[in-house]
Design a protein that fits this description.
The chain has helices at residues 13-28, 40-52, 57-70, 83-90, 96-108, 112-123, 129-141, 145-149, 151-154, 161-170, 176-183, 189-199, 203-214, 225-235, 237-243, 253-263, 266-270, 274-284, 310-318, 391-401, and strands at residues 290-291, 294-295, 329-335, 340-348, 352-356, 363-366, 370-379. It is an alpha+beta fold. The protein has 4 domains: 9-110; 174-246, no CATH class; 250-320 and 384-401, Cytochrome Bc1 Complex, Chain D, domain 2 (Orthogonal Bundle); 326-379, Roll (SH3 type barrels), CATH 2.30.30.100. The strands form 2 sheets. A 5-stranded antiparallel beta sheet has the order 6-5-4-3-7, with no helix packed on it. Strands 1-2 form a two-stranded antiparallel ribbon. The longest helix has 16 residues, at 13-28. It is globular, with a radius of gyration of 24 Å. Mean pLDDT is 85; it is low at 1-11 and 21-37.
């Protein structure tokens, strides 16, 4: 099939799908991985021509999505020939998807009018929450400081509060620690955790968080193990003096496994509540792991693992870094403007790295924005997960982990 397809061919449904697919692949393979790669400007120009040649909303939507995926995380990309005229027409399309996608692309191409349109959507409290959420994400990806300044007002909108908290991590904002900590006491547990995780992403934020711990505005129990590890790396002895030493669990591995085996007798597990165990899994494990199709895909899917074996469960829970496959080793990235990210590699090409983190399933970082990148032998899974659990809770969780089929979750 030729790289350009005639309008008559595009009337055929099969050809439509092939055209959409070829357009998407054209962008996704345009990165300069070697000297033979297609020039990006040429690739984008061909897609603009294809969009021009078609008025089918389905084809246009597919092509625009492909372009956005191929340019994900990019900023100030040179607009391809013809885009200015085309985008003006697409902005008036009867199809909402076409209008929204073309506006997002125009932002990447540095169109100030498009940025103002997206800012207007973000600031419109009558607009649908999902549309505003997309607008916020696209603006912050472009490092838009006006959107960052608007985050404080979004904290008062329940549908967007969590997005606003997370947004402070994407663009450095000197007001973030004071704003978030002033509201912290009245937040629910999920929002509190998001605040703590956000304030651990930059050294300037982390120092304010540590002060809040000293003042007991944030308790030690509200600092998850993976956040403590990140704070220890960011602040060093300053953190240790307040929080204490973050000692690797591996030093006490055998003692801890023996301790939990003594607690988890067959009779205690038999009397445990498996439905409560599922609720605990949802709270403590599902942010990273899948079990019976429920959860996230950061760590391994536990459904097919050796869960019937108590020793296997304890070893991998007490000391998750004991034997880490290469694909699950933690990667730490510090950007040139000081943002700290810890996750596992989901994708990588010549231009960007895509991380899966505990906080977000997909974080795109341009390689030109990376200052330091380190691969840790440690697992993303935090140590000490069992330490904060009561004996009954631990038994409930273990019983659920050893099930052979899904159960109802306790309300």
């Amino acid at each position: 099939m030729n790289r350009m397809t005639s309008c008559s061919q595009l009337r055929d449904p099969c050809c439509r799908w092939l055209t959409c697919l070829s357009g998407i692949l054209l962008v996704l393979t345009s990165y300069p991985l070697d000297s033979q790669a297609i020039d990006e400007t040429e690739s984008l120009g061909l897609l603009v021509e294809t969009l021009e040649a078609n008025d089918d909303a389905g084809i246009r939507t597919a092509l625009l999505k492909g372009m956005l995926r191929g340019l994900e995380g990019r900023r100030n990309v040179a607009a391809p020939k013809g885009w200015s005229e085309l985008s003006a027409r697409l902005a008036k399309s009867d199809n909402t998807n076409v209008r929204d996608l073309s506006t997002q692309l125009s932002q990447i191409f540095g169109d100030r009018e498009a940025v103002q349109r997206v800012l207007a959507i973000l600031k419109n409290s009558a607009a649908e929450a999902g549309v505003r959420r997309t607008a916020l994400r696209s603006l912050l990806t472009q490092q838009n400081h006006e959107a960052s300044a608007f985050l404080e007002s979004l904290l008062d909108e329940p549908a967007l509060t969590l997005d606003a908290v997370r947004g402070y991590a994407m663009v450095e904002n000197a007001t973030a620690p004071a704003v978030l900590l002033s509201r912290y006491e009245k937040m629910n547990p999920d929002l509190k955790r998001a605040v703590v995780e956000t304030l651990a992403t930059r050294k300037s934020y982390a120092q304010k968080l540590l002060t809040a711990v000293q003042q007991k505005r944030v308790t030690r129990d509200e600092i998850p193990a993976h956040v403590a590890r990140s704070l220890n790396s960011l602040l060093g002895q300053q953190f240790v003096k307040v929080f204490g030493k973050v000692r690797p669990v591996a030093q006490d591995r055998e003692k801890l496994i023996a301790k939990y085996k003594k607690l988890l007798t067959p009779s205690r597990i038999a009397d445990a509540d498996v439905s409560r165990g599922r609720a605990l899994f949802k709270k403590t494990c599902a942010s990273c792991h899948l079990l019976y199709g429920d959860g996230a895909k950061i760590g391994p899917d536990l459904t097919g693992s050796n869960r019937a074996n108590l020793d296997y469960i304890l070893l991998n829970s007490v000391d998750p870094s004991f034997d880490v496959p290469a694909s699950y080793k933690m990667v730490s990235i510090i950007t040139v403007e000081g943002r700290v990210l810890n996750g596992v590699i989901a994708e990588e090409d010549a231009i960007r790295v895509v991380l899966k983190t505990v906080e977000q399933p997909r974080v795109v970082i341009l390689k030109e924005d990376i200052d330091i990148r380190k691969i840790s032998p440690r697992s993303m899974m935090p140590e000490g997960q069992f330490d904060k659990m009561k004996q009954q809770e631990l038994a409930d969780l273990i019983k659920y982990l050893r099930t052979t089929e899904q159960v109802e979750m306790a309300q």
